[in-house]
Amino acid sequence: MALYGWPISQCQERSTPLDAQLQSGIRVLDIRLAIINSRLIAYHGIYPQRTSFQEILSIIHKFLTSPSTCRETIVMSIKQEDFEKHSYLEFSLLVHKEMFNGPGGRDMWYLQNRIPTLGEVRGKVVMFSRFGGNGEGWEGCLEGLGIHPLVWPDSEKSGFSWQCKDTLVSRTLLSRNPREARPRDSDPTTPERRTHAYTVDGFPLRRIHPIVPAPDNRQRIWMATGAISDEKHTADGPRVRGWVMLDYYDHPDNALTPLLVECNYRGRQKGEEGW
Q: What is the pTM of this model?
């Protein structure tokens, strides 16, 4: 939702608003909010993004109730941007109020603190909470606040991880060379979910360096995400697991997003509902 505030806060083109992102295949959203006149408004840093949380929920609810997209799933990361003005508890309680009373209500949300299978969350929004303290005011406290990392070292290029029930979640920030921040090897017996943030570096006038220079260069995106090795890839090969969060996701020429969407189908057996 960071469509305004260039060159400091803008991370997406104004030609790709939220509804366009959803239609392009984007399913993980980074929503940052601040309290303005007792309402939640999208912000990125100090810049307002001219959209209320209720408008965001309305767009998502319309998408998830449309006949052609009602079986889709969205992951929404929510972060507080005004912690210097408003307490974490005030913000958290207002998010709860607007979510439960907004479009779709409680039924639109998956709020358990674990990684679900896709079959469990068709037509729902999986909350990834980067707010909320100990979950005061939420049913189940920390167990009802969605996927909730207890720590989040901002801009930690070496990456970090945490255990979400039986799943190891690893997060990596990739800015220039993705191999500079490859995730560390993990126990192959432990289910793992990787999140990669491809971001703008060289503040304030530098945009993201495309990792894939051409739409047919699939091998490089699979290697860049660190999800699988350099082995030969086949339709029934390794599953690519993880989320990728992109600044300027449609550059260059929307070449990267279709490749990431394709990764959802590699190695999946007919009728499989996730993993």
A: 0.77
